[in-house]
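Cast an eye over this sequence plus tokens and explain the fold to me:
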Amino acid sequence: MKELSSAEIRSMFLKFFESKGHSIEPSKSLVPVDDPTLLWINSGVATLKKYFDGSVVPNNRRITNAQKSIRTNDIENVGHTARHHTLFEMMGNFSIGDYFKEDAIPWAWELLTSPEWYAMDPEKLYITVYPEDTEAKEIWLKTGVPASHIFDVADNFWDIGQGPSGPDSEIFYDRGEEFLDIPADDPENYPGGENERYLEIWNIVFSQFNHTPENTYEELPHKNIDTGMGLERVVSVFQNAKTNFETDLFMPIIKKAEELGDGVKYGDSPITDISFKVIADHARAVTFAISDSALPSNEGRGYVIRRLLRRAVLHGRKLGINGAFLTQLVPVVGHIMESYYPEVLANAEYIESVVLAEEKRFNETLSDGLKMLNDVIANVKSSDSDVIAGKVAFKLYDTYGFPYELTEEYADDEGLKVDRAGFDAEMQAQRERARAARSDAKSMGVQNPLLTDLHTESKYVGWTTEIVEDAQLADIIVDNELADTVRTGQTADVIFTQTPFYAEMGGQVADRGQILTLAGEVVAEVTDVQKAPNGQHIHSLNVLADMKKGEHYQLVVDHKFHELVSKNHTATHMLDQALRNILGGHTSQAGSLVTPDYLRFDFSYNGAVPAEKLDEIEALINEKIAEALPISWIETDIESAKKLGAVAVFTEKYGEKVRVVSIGDFNAEFDGGTHANNTSELGLFKIVSESGIGAGIRRIEAVTANVAFKLTKEHENQLVQIANAVKAPQLKDAPEKVLALQAQIKELERQVTSLEAKIANSAAANIFNDIKTLGTHSAIISQVEVSGMEQLRAIADQWKENASSDVLVLIAKTGEDKVNLIVAMSKPAIATGIKSGDLIKAIAPLVGGNGGGRPDLAQAGGSNPAGIADALAAATSWLNEH
């Protein structure tokens, strides 16, 4: 076996399959695109779902990739086991209805054993197969694997529910007897068993069935290959590492952490080794996640980042690392991964700024969490119990980021235990809430052979024309079946040999329009256009007259609709560029919607965009509109496009040729949409709103052209109305007049407050003289005329200062249907067992309200002034009874 670095192992895997005709798919963002079923990209196949379910046919049916992934379902195991990670890389080769077992198996063996490639010793490799998959077993034997190295394992069947499924073969590497962690005669001592000697390094899934909604398994019309080789695992084999952590993927991070601590070294003890592993793993995950535009927050994937970062900080403290330190690990991660992920180092400064802010925030929170934990320990020790409740442990974990094991460690030091079952129950409840919050709308679906097998030639010509004079109707689909005719009043999906209709893609809505006979008679309305798996534009029609396959028609796009959409699409490119120019290059597109009426642009950014920055963005775009920049496009290869400075948008899947749209020298992007011809056509760009829509994701909505002018005119009219209302001589004087009115109002409010205080004092002087004896208590119970709760509290303060009685109950009608109540009690009264909160809960419902508070003071609001007399009477009765 060769001595290889992690970068060499990854590169060799991809080159091997490239030599077998595979296209190398780049590693996609960890943040899923258009897949609500996933919080993170969690496998090599996760970004290829659209190919496997047949919704898109790839340019090359052979694909290979090394995909960064995150899994967070068992974070607690990281550091405690040899191979648990949150961030990992999965290398794979995939066949989308092309080759199958007879090629996949020999190629796997060739890569692993050939001297030209990995050069592993064949004697150290073992295979497991599904017992019923005799075909795979025979191919392994023909490939040269001895029967003694092949094991039947009943679990070797890959199935995630509805969608593609099938048997699989796992490949294990024998690391030698020195790695055996169980007795030699243990039943688990075999490849595939629970042991450390035989390490699984590759899984090859033979995806040959559709798991149907009816829970049956039917042969796929196109069988697939889906494989996964964990880079971290296979690197540990090549580098003869005891665990994944003693490899070049992790050790530089661990060494840096050693430098930052108080002299503790990796290998000193199993306890501190756990902390080093946690820090190394979490530093990688946090760095990559933030590089891919995810940001810390209290929900979703932002919560995962926050949790990982805080867990790393806590383990840093165990190593004597105080203060912010994860920022110093970011460039270390970047250098390790630079050969395949250069963007991490390129974004290092931005990543460090996010990490630093989060570390500082947690260090402030940490002291509160430790205080709570110490209080909990003190309370438990003073009670009859010696167990910290699971709910309390979970709150420490969930609110303050304390891992369970840290709480357990603190408790153990004090001779206490933690209710693990209760903690696990809370954790499970949270996971169920998270799962329930994610839709399964776009889980991997069942292949639709009708569309997948449809290879009709169809050309899109909408870049240069909105009318096709003569196009043949090539296919008609009615109720998911091919038809020769569609009748008046039906709906249908059709494909023409050529079309000017843009299909919905990249956030841009599809064109609308009409289908006409060559004689000019309208026969159908085009309501939507989507791309078929093989790239044809499928037109959804409302049919107004019979149409037949093979006949010729005119296709006419709605010009006004198309023009407005095109202008707004150009505006999204200009907005994207303006955001990068003004907010920084780390902002990246996270979604968009382009309609004729408005545009919506989602982007990554940490915090709300300041108003002055929005003004700058809007001004820059309007400046470029005024410059009348020409808009042009070319078709070229990807590398040439990158040399032109074109920006790739995450939502697009690019083939060998790409279309680059340039807006003068201001912006160049990979793009498949339609655009204006010149920025001057946009007329005006106006931001309507800026808001947050998720963790670290902001949304700008904006309008252009006539819609923007109309909105501006509406704003102008509103300003004129304001100017007239405040009697401003000119529109420019309105702000000063409004400020003067605000100052006047503030002064009047001050005077009203002063008068209300005097009224309250006067009312207090009267009611304090009306003291009743109710039961064993002296009480003042009265309705007063004041404007609100503030005045009631002022009277209560006077009552307390004067010690006027044991109990105070005041009720005021403060609006047409509004009531305020306040109850106060002296310490002697409370000592007898009565509380303000209990009394107010008894009387508030009578005025249509509810409330509560402390034993000495409680307040409430209500909506039924007619019940005031009843409430006063109830207060009297309550005190007589208590």
Q: What stands out?
A: The first helix runs from residue 6 to 19.
